[in-house]
Amino acid sequence: MRLQKYMADCGVASRRACEQIIEDGRVTVNGIPADLGASVEETDEVRLDGKRLRPQPERVVLMLYKPRGVVSTSSDEAGRKTVQEFVKELPYRLYNVGRLDLNSEGLLLLTNDGELANRLMHPRYGVNKTYRVVCDGTLSASEIATLTNGVQLEDGITAPAKVTNIRRSTTGGTAFSITIHEGRNRQIRRMLEAIGHRTLRLKREAYGNLKLGDLKPGEWRYLTPEEIAGLYESGK
User: Fold this and answer.
1) E strands of 139-173, at which residues?
2) 2-34, pLDDT tens digit by residue?
3) Nearest CA to 190 among 124, 141, 135, 142?
């Protein structure tokens, strides 16, 4: 097996990223610095920065459309429905990548790949997340500028966001799309509260290179190897 594939199977990164790691001289095979294009067997000792690499169990990443009224936890003391109930028949222990609050809906990733989950949630990588929002009232030009440039919250000012597709909603409020790369608790709801608006609906439609597509609430699908590799490249 090619060394870069072995490393990807160990959960290091995508094959392309592993090639660069090999070229950087960070990998040894049986104590010898590895060359790009090297092949390895299961019995070989592969180390990255001195740490032994071992293949992971089958890596699973799936996309779930979390409905409103469902909590993003493995269990709930109040007896509310959890996202785990939608995947309970699968023979894997899956964890969510971040959360969507009770009244939010849309794209939620679940995986048994801890390396990928940590990467996607780490602020360093700044993976984009796009939401479709409906709020009450009319957003003024100055309020849109505040959302775009940064809103002062109790835990600091938010990073610049992208606000697009602004229109009047059928409920009389304002509908718009917003893309952020932070993952603060209830961030978009708090941003709108800070400028005097209440969130009526919040739906995550995209995460990195992924889009919710035609999934309906409660439906899920496995990600393809190409989509998983794309997630590893997100935010670089």
Assistant:
1) 152-153, 156-157, 162-168
2) 999 888 878 687 778 889 999 999 999 999 999
3) 135
pTM metric for this prediction: 0.75
pLDDT per residue over 74-129, tens digit each? 778 888 999 999 998 888 878 888 889 999 999 999 998 877 887 888 777 788 99
- DSSP state for residue 120 in the 8-state scheme: H
CATH ID of 128-207, from 3.30.428.10, 3.90.1300.10, 3.30.70.1560, 3.40.50.1820: 3.30.70.1560
> In 3-state terms, the chain is what percent helix, strand and coil (to 5)?
25, 30, 45
CB 110 within 8 A of CB 88: no
CB contact at 8 A, 120 and 98: yes
**DSSP code of 144?**
H
| Catalytic residue of the set 49, 101, 155, 214 | 101
Active site residue 9: no
CATH of 61-123+213-233, one of 3.30.70.580, 3.20.20.80, 3.40.50.300, 3.40.50.2300: 3.30.70.580
Overall size of the chain counted in residues: 236
* Token pair for 15: 């094959």
Q: Which fold has domain 3-52?
A: 3.10.290
**Which residues in 76-112 are b (16+ Cβ under 10 Å) and which e?**
eeeeeebbbebeeeeeeebebbebbeeebbbbbbbbb
Alpha helices in the chain (DSSP H): 3-9, 15-23, 114-121, 141-149, 187-194, 225-233
